[in-house]
Write a structure and sequence with these properties.
Elements (H helix, E strand, L loop, with lengths): L9 H6 L3 E3 L3 E5 L4 H13 L14 H16 L3 E8 L4 E10 L4 E8 L8 H15 L4 E7 L3 H9 L3 E6 L2 E7 L5
Parallel strand pairs: 5-6
Antiparallel strand pairs: 1-2, 2-3, 3-4, 4-5, 6-8, 7-8
Helix pairs in contact: 2-3
Length: 182
């Protein structure tokens, strides 16, 4: 039976992981501490060349805090989980979010990584440990929607065994199924 966010009981929601640990990275829910909000805004400033691919913009700490608080509310209603990607020493290096698409019965994944930490396997590790947790929880299909011009993100999808399923306009849709991991 497929588990989806809308079917989870309140006690199951509490068990949804706040932290997922890998060998080199930790994926954990964003917090609204002053330090983390500063880190979020600074990461976006350093990565302005990739800002066109970001689904949201953090121009200052207040905007970042409002967004993070909104994602916490969506998490409580079982529709979205947004995590920061951290090195084991707690250095914030990016983010990964899962949104349940009820109509398609799948999870949509959005991710980004600070340019200073790209090409080191950190994003692939974060994606791998997070998707493993989602598959463990019963989700069957994961979706990555990637801009056609975002070649680095396409490489991440392909190297993590996502399969190109659709290309509409400038967006490529990559799918990974838990069944392909058996």
């Amino acid at each position: 039976m497929t588990t989806d966010f809308d079917k989870l009981k309140a006690e199951d929601t509490k068990s949804f992981p706040a932290v997922i640990s890998g060998d080199r990275v930790v994926v954990k829910l964003h917090d609204v501490s002053d330090k983390h909000l500063r880190d979020v805004v600074e990461l976006e400033e350093r990565n302005s060349d990739f800002a066109k691919y970001f689904c949201r913009r953090f121009s200052n700490k207040q905007v970042a805090q409002e967004y993070i608080e909104m994602t916490h509310e969506l998490f409580k209603t079982n529709r979205m989980a947004e995590y920061g990607i951290f090195l084991k020493d707690n250095t914030y290096i990016g983010g990964i979010a899962f949104e349940y698409l009820k109509a398609k019965n799948m999870l949509s994944i959005i991710y980004f990584l600070d340019k200073n930490f790209r090409n080191k396997g950190y994003l692939s590790e974060a994606l791998h440990i997070a998707e493993k947790e989602m598959f463990r929880r019963g989700f069957i299909n994961l979706l990555l929607k990637i801009d056609r011009n975002n070649i680095p993100s396409q490489r991440v999808a392909k190297s993590n065994n996502y399969v190109l399923k659709d290309s509409a306009d400038d967006i490529l849709s990559f799918i990974k199924s838990s069944k392909s991991n058996d």
